[in-house]
Structures
1.
Amino acid sequence: RLAFAFGLVLVLLMVVAGFALRSMSEIQGNLEIMVTKTQTKLARANQMSSAIRDITIMDSNLILLRDEREIKEQVEQLEKVSANFREARAALDSLVVTPEGKSMLAKIDEALAVGTPLNQELIKLALAQRTEEAREFSLKKFQPAVRTTLAAVLTFILHEQDLSKEVHAHSEQRYRQTRMLVNVLAGLAVL
């Protein structure tokens, strides 16, 4: 009887250990998704959002500037920020795998297809020192396109944040279940 009881305790401990390891592996996988994938996508989307805002500010500055050196510096900065935006957008192509995420990226691209030529036209007007025309163009055409693009990026960001919350909630639930089961089975093994 003693050997049977001892064997039962060993079996219970092996079940506890196996279940705990399986659950911890699942939780680790969820953490990897949150840290390496979701957070990276969020960082890239926020990088895009910041770049759009920076481009808008720099375009406004271009309209106001008169000094050739300052204009040249502003154009160089615009090129850097635009490259930063393109880098972030390209990175998302390899990170986003779900149809819903790809659809959201397509909406961002659609907004960019409208906004990018408008931005180029605005820069041309500003460089030609056609200040009043550039100001009107910015207010009536470019700014609405910027808002549309930012809204598309924000929709993507909110989607990724929701996914992260879901993974986090699932991991927390799994942790609580594992902790409870390990405690129960360990208590049974001790009895």
2.
Amino acid sequence: GGDGVSPAYGTKTGLEANEPVYCTAPSACQTVTDTVRATCTGWKTYVVDPLTRQRTFEASGSGTTYEYVHDGRWHQLEWQWQEEFLVTVTAGAGGTVSPASQWVTNGSAAVVTVTAEAGKAFSRWSGDMSDGGRFSSTFAVTAPVEAEAVFGNLIYVATPETGTTGSPFLQPTALKVNIKATQTRTKRTRV
């Protein structure tokens, strides 16, 4: 964030004692990039030691305006911005996702409806996804996300406990099966 602040970012010199400086930031949401936008939520001021550059917190407030009156000390004004990130998702073969895109506040959760076709199940996300959200339709957002829902086939295994239909489970993308071959020998007798 920060486009359109007045005075512009940087150092303002040549102020007289008790001279007021009217500071403003845009009240509307600002586009930072195609996938990041920010809204000014307030300000903080610090007194700065000119020798050590160490900052000491002075005051804070909400809103997009601040009136500074020069008292002879160095001050720093820091605008506070709430970022939002674009979350864009698509569906691979076997299902759908909704919404396809949404803006999510930094640190909040994106909620996506993931619907699998008959005989399929949601497996995971591929793409810009943290490991914590890779297998869920709700995930925390701390950066822009572009991901695709991956669906897998449901397969059934019959066991003596479940009968002939078995219980469904998701077929993994890579399934390693070890099959032990057994031979049946038939003895032949000549007559």
3.
Amino acid sequence: SGARCGVYRKGCHGLPVRGRRVRLRRPDAGSEWLRGPHSTARFGASAPVSCRTARRLEEVGADEGVEVAVEVAGDLPLLEVDPVRIREVLVNLVGNALRYAPRGSAVRLMASLDPDRTAVSIAVVDAGPGIPAELQGRVFDRFTRSAESRGSGLGLAIARQLVEAHRGRIGAQSFPSGGTRIWITLPIGPT
């Protein structure tokens, strides 16, 4: 299938995107237009995870003693998304994973084509403590955070809004032995 995988420093692979406007509903102020650059990119600076962003995430991971690895299938079709907003989502998810991943572990960012070939699946997986059971059903709600969280409780809520504005879906899965998998699906074609 021509999959291209690698750790950031061994090879930079972005997600293919085509810039497009999407309507974003803000919970407190109606709506606003999001605009991405109107360009097409398979890899590189216009992709949601550019080489520059990837290197920065790797540096942050290294500071925390956590490896950041990327596995992006080489046969992904173009996505028509606002690449700036999708990049924000991915950077937020990887940043959260780095915050909770133990030293010596890895955070993985993976992207592949769904089996039905109608969407791209993206997942961020860490080996942290997982999401507490009492929060799992509302982890994407505004101001939801665990007792250990250093954040505001808005990052995942904003990520959900941005993904849904692209007609996508987002979800979370925690494992009994620890670790969390946050997944996104983005449809292929116009948003």
4.
Amino acid sequence: DSSNLALLVNLVALSAYLYSMYMIYQREIRKLESKLARRISLCHLGLELSSSTHQQPLHSNRQTHRSTENNTAQLEQGYGEYRPEIRPYGRLQFLTIQCLFIQAISTSLHVLSHFHKPLKGVSDVVFTALAFPIGSIVVYTFWLVWFGMGREYIFPAVLDDYYPPVVNHMTHTVIVPLNMLLAVLVNHKYA
């Protein structure tokens, strides 16, 4: 039955989207923890150097004086204490993350509409107006820029430590085949 197959596809898609959101969240936490640890270590390094230079004259060791000046400058720039970055909208400023949330909402509505029929209209509207077009734009734009202009323009290799290739493909590849499959398997009303 195509209805049960569509339910299975939706459950697989939902689990993939939730897993990728979890992985992105975990990577963000690790990245913030490493920034915090680096800032704390710079703070301790600056404090240790400044306290050790007061015990001996600064002119006796020019290298210590220079390193103290550098660490003081770093501390004044805010590297020595934890100051969270204030960015409007955080990670939601990226269309990829917005698309991931929209896909998760759409597949959740599909699963719920399988058991509760009044939600069928809402899931059709969300799928046809948001999930399918935005998912297609994200996937096609990402891969066109990746292969057309080069990887460094859209997803630098430095980000591989924070955003593994599996999550990259879940957010930039799997969306279109799953949406195409859902467009074929589920009888959507486009009105």
